[in-house]
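To whoever picks this up:

The nightly regression suite flagged D-glycerate dehydrogenase as changed. Nothing in the input moved, so I suspect the structure step. Input below, exactly as stored in the fixture:
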Amino acid sequence: DALKKKVLVARRAPAAVIERLAAHFEIDAVPDDRVLPPDELRARLQGKAGAYITGTERITAELLDACPDLRAVCTMSVGYNHIDLAACTARGVLVTNTPDVLTETTADFGFALLMATARRMSEGERLLRDGGWKSWAWDFLAGAEVHGTTLGILGMGRIGQAIARRGRFGFGMQVVYHNRSRLAADTEAELGARYLAKDELLRQADHLVLVLPYSAEAHHCIGAAEIALMKPTATLVNIARGGIVDEDALAAALRKRLIAAAGLDVFEGEPRVNPALLTLSNVVLTPHIASATLPTRQAMALLAADNLVAALTGAVPPTPLNPQVLSA
Ligand code: 8YV
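Regenerated output under the current build:
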């Protein structure tokens, strides 16, 4: 159909997404799980009005200039640091993400990673599988307490608040947080959350969870100086973006036991993992799976598709990041 707009689906997507998009558009769907290299992404975007992407494909100003037909970029992720939003807005390209549908699932995983890290679950499993479980000792694999301790949250958005609820209501924790802006008083009261300056948060937290969006200002905002403020018994959990943490500094701190342990679901330069982290016993490492349940991934995928359909058919997309483009 020559009248149908063309869209690129840049990664293998659920059949329901392809069906929904095919009802409106002529689709060029990448059938496999590899990330398109930048030049291939550019080539396949020629003549396309829309791009359905994931958290991996980078949308830069140069790419937009090379793809003048592009009107909408819809990412199946809540994070959008892979997209130059200002460049998109300046060119009238609508951008959407997938907030809300992954909040509770991602918070579940953040809490699971905190628990696994504090209670040394990966270390225990490795020891058991390697045949190292020979006897019992009073301090055998003794970890850090979770219930009743102080939960620190850096980045108190939707996911941060969902983690705060788990900590407060499930584990009787005291919640302290730092965020660019302070929460409304009634939200703070509901979460029992106390706002602290960043340094004070680092000092007080028994378990510190990073859930802030990645940006130039957030780059390596947890490094040697910040880790030095933390308790030697503290654990650090990162479910945001790898670039927030200086991994070399973290690995050095874990080796010297400046903090007790870390749980990392995200890495700078993933899927490559800093080799310095791989040799440490006091770190739990997972391959960026905090939103990975089938229902949540399906909801994210369909929300991204709904956004793309709306964006290219003159409707208001459910979750736009630059809605000003719609009224321009
Ligand atoms: C995605 C994420 O799985 O939503 C995000 O920002 O990091 C994950 O939920 C990943 O970006 C793939 O799209």
